[in-house]
């Protein structure tokens, strides 16, 4: 629960086959309301951490002060990358698996979230 109404924006990112972040959608609102003190990012899975780091970079460019990341599942290596990117970033996760495979998928993990959300069959 938040004490007052807040703007909600969408920042869409995915990783390419080389595990680099790709921003495909950005509708961060304009700065007419002043600086952004807090940005809360809902990232269901943090595997390698690269898309989350890309989102953090976009939010810093946008002018966000503190950034809070909320995830369902993370890998230990991915969350270490994200948590190590500055004191202005906090990470909260429901679960943590030890690492990722060569394709950047968390093991044992829960499967590809994009496949589950959009009924695709792994590319």
Tell me the major beta sheet: 4 strands, parallel
Q: Which runs of at least 5 residues are low in confidence (pLDDT < 50)?
A: none
Task: Name the helix and strand elements from N-terminus to C-terminus, one letter apiece.
Answer: EEEEHEHEEEH
The whole-angstrom Rg is 15 Å
Q: Kindly report how far apart the N and C termini lie.
A: 37 Å
User: Which secondary-structure class do the elements indicate?
Assistant: alpha/beta
How confident is the prediction overall: mean pLDDT? 84
> How many beta-strand elements?
8
**How many helical elements?**
3
Overall 3D form:
globular
Give the helix level as a range of percent.
10-25%
Query: Beta-strand level of the residues, as a percent range?
Result: 25-35%
Structural account:
It is globular and about 45 Å long. It is an alpha/beta fold. Strands 3, 4, 5 and 6 form a four-stranded parallel sheet that branches. Strands 1-2 form a two-stranded antiparallel ribbon. Strands 7-8 form a two-stranded antiparallel sheet. 22% of the residues lie in helices and 33% in strands.
Would you summarize the structure shown here?
This protein is α/β, with parallel strands linked by helices and 123 residues long. It contains 3 helices and 8 strands; from the N terminus they run ββββαβαβββα.
